[in-house]
Amino acid sequence: MHGLSELLGIAIIAITATLCGMAMVQFRQPPIIGYILSGILLGPGALGLVQDRSNVETLAEIGVILLLYFIGIELSLQSFRQIWKTAVGATIIQIVLSILFVLWLGPKFGLSLGQMLLFAFCLAVSSTAVSVTVVQSIGESSTRTGQLVIGILIAQDLAIAPMLLIISGFGGGAMPEFASLVKIAIEVAISIVVLVAFIVFLARKKSFNMPFADLVMTKSDLTPLAVLAWCLGFALISGLLGLSPAFGAFLAGLTIGNSAQSSIAHKNAEPIKVVLLMVFFLSIGLLVDLGFLFENFLAIMLILVSATVFKTLLNVLGLRALGKGWGEAFLASLLLGQMGEFSFVMGAVAVGVTLIDQNLLNYLISITVLSLITAPFYVSVARRLHTVMIEKSGEVGLGIALKTILRSLSPFAKVKLSQRDIRFLQKEWQKQKKDRKRWSETP
């Protein structure tokens, strides 16, 4: 039958991704790790059932846009206003010190300035999808630490647009012209001004109705399409203005998240986001060249461990310098310790302007994928540290934090993190729910 082979391929992808996602959930890990593994399994390097990644690229890009859209919807402006200085400060520290570190190390490996900036940017950015999922899974989304992590992720995501512009300016490895640098500076300034204007405007309005709300938000068959159109419309306008489409989607989420239709929009867009994010992370798995990974495994693992330790320590020291306690700094840093999914986007742009070759791209892909796959370790550490923080009434010193991390490294970590610990955490979460809500509503 005509089209049966295409249907078979879609069915295999959906079934494999679902099974791998279920396996991760069974081990209390984010299902997105399973989606990456399903991509690796189905890709050219393994079973070879999916050969052409281009068929899912557009849907994957929309998945990232919807992710930023949902972050905007769920962001509490009152809470963000209290932590935005720390979030922006931590992001600036991370980016600047990552650049300095790679500029010091890069010449030893013969990297050009453009290549060093690319790898520094990839090192500085964490995974929004993984971190937000972990924050929600350990019940930290309404706490100061959870809001801080989300704030830092937002600040990093907003930095993606200028990063991409800078990478594009190094086409062929050459230094960008002065006119290009001026253009980059103008676009960054515009992004900051627009974001601040949106936040100030929305913070002053307690609630408002979306355009045509009475028409589209009361029809169950029209609401999902309207919510998706609102997101993609903002993303398109942002892209046409020379800014990042993800930036526009985030602004769309901020707008609808502070409207009277926030809960309706969230409920109707959630299934769409889940499907498209599955496609995005599966497409990441399809990029992995298993032959290259096995041939260069030791070098890749050395770089991965070094990058992970560097990111975690840098975040800890940065947050401590910004006045956060050891326990909060450690927990936030563990949640931000992995490489980000936008590394693939930056890598694709770098290849497009011949800044890097396929060999360097394979290194970047392998390191980032392994970082995302090993993110469950951070889930375990974060959960354990969260439990200890509750037992200590939120006050955790450096010694206890280090002991918690070393305990999580133990081969008996699963035994030590018992069901009793998890039930205790859930019980305490319910007790503190009213206090957390009261804090989030405090102006």
SSE inventory with pairings:
Blueprint lengths: L3 H23 L4 H12 L11 H21 L2 H29 L7 H12 L3 H10 L6 H26 L8 H27 L8 H4 L6 H18 L4 H13 L4 H26 L2 H6 L1 H25 L4 H10 L6 H11 L5 H16 L1 H17 L6 H12 L3 H4 L2 H22 L3
Helix pairs in contact: 1-2, 2-12, 3-10, 3-11, 3-12, 4-5, 4-7, 4-14, 5-7, 5-16, 6-7, 7-8, 7-15, 7-16, 8-11, 10-11, 10-12, 14-15, 14-17, 15-18, 16-17, 18-19
Oligomer: single chain
Number of domains: 1
Q: What is the H-and-E element order?
A: HHHHHHHHHHHHHHHHHHHHH
The span between the termini is: 62 Å
Radius of gyration: 22 Å
For the sheet with most strands, the description reads: none
The chain-level mean pLDDT equals 75
Spatial shape: globular
Low-confidence parts lasting 5 or more residues at pLDDT below 50?
Answer: 409-418
Helix content: over 70%
Q: Can you count the helices?
A: 21
Look at the structure and give the CATH class: Mainly Alpha
Strand content: under 5%
CATH topology: Na+/H+ antiporter like fold
What is the SS-derived class? mainly alpha
The number of strands is 0
CATH architecture: Up-down Bundle
